[in-house]
Amino acid sequence: MPTNYSLEAYQQLRDSGLPPVRPAWGGFDATEAASLLELCIELNNQDDRNNPNLPDPNHQYRAKPAGWQLAYDSRQPGNTEWNRIWPWDGHGDNPNDIKTNGLKPLNNAWLLAQSTSDPGHVAIAIRGTVGERRSILADAYATTIPAYAGVEYPENKPLPIVFAATPDAEVHLGFGYAAFSLLFDPERGILTQLQQRLAQQAITKITVTGHSQGAAVATLIHAFLYYATNDERNPYQLAFTAKPALKSYLFAQPKPGNLQFSQDFARIAAETAYVINNDRDPVPQVPLSLETVSEVAEFVEEDNVSVGGPLDHVIDAVTSAKNAIRGSIAEVFTGHLADDFEETGIAASVERYFGDTAIELPDLKPKSLNYTLAGQLIPVFGLTKGGDCYTIGDRPDILLQHHATSYRKLIAMQLLGKRDDCAGGH
Q: Can you supply a Gene Ontology BP term from the record (predicted)?
């Protein structure tokens, strides 16, 4: 187990489960997946659900989270009701408005649910992109940061936050900072709420879920929790009586990181992380991967550089220049995001967890944009124009295949065999 903050120390945690064995709580469960998608619909479809012109009180935007009770809602702390429209007196942020009810600066939101059949089992659900500038920015920051010590706060101060321990593993910058916001917000953040819950009740299982951007961020949170709960130093003060079992169901997942991150996640989340993607959904195809010959040959370069004649020195120079350019681009975005966090109060969490520790971290630079899926793929196959299952209406709908409600019907039909659920559906 690590005794310092070196990358090599965290690699011991990555490999601590070798040789791999099937986890007792592993395996894909379609019924479990369907129930967790309802948590995503609660978060993602709040604005649709609050439309007063919807004629049917049992419309498709209502979440139906069978087997789960709401334990914490970052949009309105204290809320324990599904599909709630909250009273608002006009002062402060409106909890019913998706443009204002998220955690700053990227307007992310999450909820904690408790299983009604197993009190020690909780689910963390992450909201996806909403139609608001700050949320969209999290998607738009499509460069990478190192998966280890890539998050900076304040600017130029890298934090020993671990999403992966494999060398050259990188994550999408926007998704990485969204995870940082959700985890470390001093009042409404995941770490704070887990600490408070653990003071009252043991947690033995954690399932992480999300749809769209929420799926990518949920992937990083699963990875973070793996390294945090396996670290015997307990750097985040989580009073688990035993290491919790982790699992995730990730719907319409945009690519959260590069190939090396995906490989690291495959090691730490084998048979416990499932990506449910629709083959006709455009969102899982982004961010667009950009892979050069130099990236493919990176380890060949590393093994052979400075061996041989002048050509090797040319290769070394080109590789160094390539990485310097990518690093400078990432620094611009990282600096901008670090500034945005100044008014969030997150400095208190940074001081709490990292302030008293003398940490010498490597100055790692991002090297790649070869984004790829992370987790075990469970495909569903979309229907042209939605078939008779989620039929397109009279207006164009470029995200017809992406909606969480479309995934709900595809999962019911293709993974649960409930074909009647699609009759006449929209």
A: lipid metabolic process
- Asked, for residue 295, whether it belongs to a domain, the answer is yes
Query: What is the side-by-side strand order in the sheet with 257-258?
Result: 144-146, 170-172, 257-258, 371-372
Task: Please tell me the pTM assigned to this model.
Answer: 0.87
Per the CB < 8 A criterion, the answer to whether 103 and 181 are in contact is: yes
Q: What is the CA radius of gyration of the chain?
A: 22
CATH code at position 352 = 3.40.50.1820
pLDDT tens digits along 256-304: 999 999 999 999 999 999 999 999 999 999 886 655 444 555 555 555 5
Q: Could you report how far apart the first and last alpha carbons of the chain are, in Å?
A: 52
Asked if residue 84 lies in contact with residue 78, where contact means CB atoms within 8 angstroms, the answer is no
Pairing of strands 257-258, 371-372: antiparallel
Question: Which residue range forms the structural domain that includes residue 262?
Answer: 7-380
Structure tokens, 195? 């600490």
- The structural domain count of the chain equals 1
Give the integer Cα–Cα distance in Å for 251 and 212: 6
* Residue linked to tokens 């900076």: 152
